[in-house]
Amino acid sequence: MIRAVAFLLCLALASALSTGAKAQTPPPRPVPANTLPARTHLILTVPLANAQTLAATAAAITNDFGVTLSAEWPLQSISVHCFVVEVGRQTDIDALVQRMRADARIRTVQRMQDFNTFASSKSARHFPVQQALVQLNAVAAQRISKGANVKVAIVDSAIDGTHPDLSGRVEALRDFVDDDRQGKGEAHGTAIAGIIGADATNATGMVGVAPDAELVGLRACWQAKGKAGHCNSFSLARALNFAILNHFDVINMSLGGPPDLLLGELIHAAIDSGAVVVAAWGEGDKAAFPASVPGVIAAGRSADTAIPAPSVDVLSTAPHNHYNYVSGSSVAAAHVSGVVALLLAAHPGLHANDVAKTLHAAVEARHGKPMLDACQALDAVVDKPFSCTQ
Hints:
The chain has 11 helices and 20 strands. The strands form 5 sheets. It has a 7-stranded parallel beta sheet, with helices on both faces. It has a 4-stranded antiparallel beta sheet with strand order 2-3-1-4, with helices on both faces. A 4-stranded antiparallel beta sheet has the order 10-11-5-13. The chain is α/β, with parallel strands linked by helices. The radius of gyration is 21 Å and the shape is elongated. It has helices at about 1-20, 50-65, 95-100, 130-135, 140, 185-195, 235-245, 260-270, 330-345, 350-360, 375-380; strands at about 40-45, 70-75, 80-85, 110, 115, 120-125, 150-155, 170-175, 215-220, 220, 230, 250-255, 255, 275-280, 295-300, 305-310, 315-320, 320-325, 365, 370. It folds into 2 domains: about 20-110, Alpha-Beta Plaits (2-Layer Sandwich), CATH 3.30.70.260; about 115-380, CATH 3.40.50.200.
């Protein structure tokens, strides 16, 4: 409890310091991200400046290009200010983007992009033996490391922090969508959190891959009941900016979509800051963005360049104290993020490139299919060899 309180105080202090450093910037305009349809919105970035300069820039841009300012937010991690503008439904958006790119006041401009989570679920009426940890050989690995003191940012839909297997495990919850959940969890984020770090000490439910890791939920996606999670460039950019400023060790992104210039820049900034970014490969033959970004660890089932991890009918936490079976590359990414936390706890300061090499080297054939062996990966980064026999 003391550690959790201290962690929350550190988050608050870091946020206050970053706000103080840019005290002259205009206040954020927290428009709900799920009210900004991609077909009518663009995202522009300009260099950070004082409030008066940014206000003048926004007024000039909206006047010169005939657009309406919908939202704005500083992204201190890459030293830019973000404007979200709405365009008319009859506007030739491609032509408008080209004109904006030629304007010296505008650093970057792009369409708002949509992203989705990669998991399906079905109800678990009877609690079965949890097979995913066995497939991953995580039980043996947990004898050496459980992810203690490793900060994991879960960029996803809302996590149900009241679930018995997550209560006390989720250090903080931040909402970058609409601040309207009031602590209510959503299915995808709750499942991903359970796989990464469900409680191992409460003698009930399930156990996460890294049950001692410090989990923080960064809600950047929203989810209707029975539907996939949905996110956009604006909500994801704000969540990534927060994760970078607060120095998370691992950033899990069990989601994907089209290439995105702004998000790509933030992901590179996260990796440069020392974070390990793990993303879902997607359900196609080619990696979705951001799994396709160089330096990001992609997780999937059996793709040559992805880390294969359990992804079919995996038991995990669900809102309202329930459990569901979940499938998809989102699930694989959560397992890989958990293993990364085990590695970083055992070998703090391990670089993202070394983490990726270690994971790839620990992939073994199991029942004729490739599978990550968490214990073999951990054995490769600790000084004293140990047995991986369960």
